Amino acid sequence: MQTKDLITRLSQEAPAKSQLRSPVFFSAGLILILTIYGVGAQIFLGSRPDLVTQFTRPLFIAEISLLTILAMSSAIAAILAMYPDAYQKPGLLRLPYFVFAALLALLFFEVFMPDDARMITPPFSMAGRECSICIAMLSFLPACLIFGVLRRGASVHPLLAGSLAVMAAAGMGCLILRLFEPNDTLAHLVTWHYMATFVFACLGAIAGRWLLKW
Amino acid sequence: MNVTAPSQNKYSELVILLRAANDGDAACYQKFLSDVSIILRRVVVRKLPANDVEDVLQDILISIHKARHTYDCERPLFPWLLTIARFRINDHLRKLYANARHELLDPDAMPGISSDVTETIEDAEYIEKLLDCVPERERKILKMMHGDGYTAKETGTHLGMNESAVKVAAHRAMKKIRMRFGT
Fold it and tell me: Which of A46, B5, B101, B168 has the fewest CB atoms lying closer than 10 Å?
């Protein structure tokens, strides 16, 4: 087919198409839904018995803040990624990875705090995999929702968009679990919470490649 | 990706055309796609071989058609347009490289791979030495049949012998060589 014929055909079959709403609208909506979901899941699961005490520890507050920022920034970045030009703010697409790196750096920093009870490292066990499964279950619905929203756009970074979508959902799952589970062991957190989140994000990238084709 | 940007008037016209197209104006949409295809062809030509240009250009136009609702008319058009173009060009290149990796190599097309074994001096000298122990006529028969690739019939025609005589002579020559060199 000649390019000229294609242009004629495309112009003839083009009905009026309403413009996709701005990323601010989608981001605000998504953050609102994630917050409601998070609060609902937390109420359902309950909270850790020492939550109030933990919130007196600056490092715990920093960790929870970073997790919240990770979930929110990933949600915003995923929404931006559904616009071909990333709404002309491509730098924001990488922000969640920096937040994730900051989170890991914070945990690494805590290794050198001898007074912290979190330094007590129990022997490695596979029992912690329940946490990863729990994060996966908690993040399944939000991830489906975000993928559904992303499919309305036209991402030119399907891998990145998929990874960000899952990172947002898994970040929320991590946050909920962190406020529920009283286990503060660094090795456990790194292995079964944060590395699991990273692996889920990688799987999300693979899913994005197939689900966000257009 | 550098592209010569059209004048400000032309640029504003493109934005107006796309906005009208999104409102359902087919004529404006056709004009928009035609104008844009001229700009995009220049981009694609720089990146791809000439025989792929039209295919990729059409891919880009279809992608613009599918993604036209994602363009915000308040924002610059060209970053949006060129990102889609780059995405499709890279997609095409990825497929091209993937296919190239799985392509079968044709030994005939590779120079030097199927060269004649007698081309090197050492090999040629060795064969000459083998042929020294047989009479001139038999040597000629062996050279024609095993070196030049003639059949027994063609060799016979060339040397004025019948086909079976050529075969017998070739057989005897080979036997002599084997007895002499034990090969």
Answer: B101
